[in-house]
């Protein structure tokens, strides 16, 4: 018989820039990445006045076999509802702690790949007033799609970014996913690249 207990657990995050800045951006990594390395993509945003915060998924694993490089994940199909709930709670607690001594005028949220689904779920369960919501190379999660289409108070600026050579999107589903975002009032940016954070596009999007 399956049973559960509640435990306390430490979660790790990385940050760049001045925590007393007026602008903060949360950047959520993709499957198999670590926040320590993912956050390096966003170093140029510090020059734009952002305090950059990269939470790390709490499920870590070896990327190949039983040793070597380690990656992190936000969730799997196993007990996904519990993972979603705990991810949302973790991110809410993180923001509450970070904003305890500073009230940010601008709060942005960027989710890359698997982190895009987690960012979407956080956005839709949170009362945080995100000023800019950026999804990068991800499909909007089905479990929040209806809420997304019906949520009239979704007032954040919305942006979707994807590389035209992204290996996870062929020409057919790339067209399908970009059409979905356009129909739902996202500004869509395409760049000549693969499944990664493109610096030139990032600076363009975050300068808007």
Question: What do these coordinates show?
Answer:
The chain is an alpha/beta fold. The protein has a single domain, classed as Rossmann fold (3-Layer(aba) Sandwich). 31% of the residues lie in helices and 23% in strands. It has helices at 35-38, 80-98, 114-125, 142-150, 171-183, 199-206, and strands at 13-16, 23-28, 50-55, 59-62, 70-73, 106-112, 132-136, 157-163, 187-191. A 7-stranded mixed β-sheet has the order 1-3-2-6-7-8-9. Strands 4-5 form a two-stranded antiparallel ribbon. Helix 2 packs across helix 3.
Shape: globular
Low-confidence stretches: none
CATH homology superfamily: Alpha/Beta hydrolase fold, catalytic domain
Q: Structural class per helix/strand content?
A: alpha/beta
Strand content: 15-25%
Summarize the structure.
The chain has 208 residues and is an alpha/beta fold. The chain has helices at residues 35-38, 80-98, 114-125, 142-150, 171-183, 199-206; strands at residues 13-16, 23-28, 50-55, 59-62, 70-73, 106-112, 132-136, 157-163, 187-191. It has a single domain (13-206), classed as Alpha/Beta hydrolase fold, catalytic domain (Rossmann fold, 3-Layer(aba) Sandwich).
List the main descriptive attributes of the protein structure presented here:
alpha/beta, Rossmann fold, 7-stranded mixed sheet, two-stranded antiparallel ribbon, 208 residues
């Amino acid at each position: 018989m399956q049973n559960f207990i509640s435990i306390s657990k430490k979660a790790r995050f990385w940050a760049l820039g001045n925590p007393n800045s007026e602008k903060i951006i949360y950047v959520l990594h993709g499957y198999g990445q670590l926040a320590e390395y993912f956050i390096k993509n966003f170093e140029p945003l510090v020059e734009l006045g952002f305090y950059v915060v990269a939470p790390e998924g709490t499920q870590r694993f070896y990327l190949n076999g039983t040793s070597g490089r380690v990656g992190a994940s936000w969730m799997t199909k196993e007990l996904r509802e519990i993972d979603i709930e705990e991810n949302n709670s973790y991110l809410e607690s993180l923001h509450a702690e970070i904003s305890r001594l500073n009230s940010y005028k601008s709060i942005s949220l960027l989710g890359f790949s698997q982190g895009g689904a987690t960012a979407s779920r956080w956005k839709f369960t949170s009362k945080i007033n995100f000023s800019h919501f950026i999804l990068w190379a991800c499909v909007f999660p089905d479990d929040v799609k209806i809420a997304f289409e019906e949520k009239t108070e979704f007032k954040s600026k919305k942006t979707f970014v994807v590389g035209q050579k992204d290996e996870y999107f062929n020409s057919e589903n790339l067209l399908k996913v970009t059409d979905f975002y356009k129909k739902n009032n996202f500004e869509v940016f395409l760049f000549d690249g693969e499944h990664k954070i493109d610096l030139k596009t990032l600076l363009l999007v975050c300068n808007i």
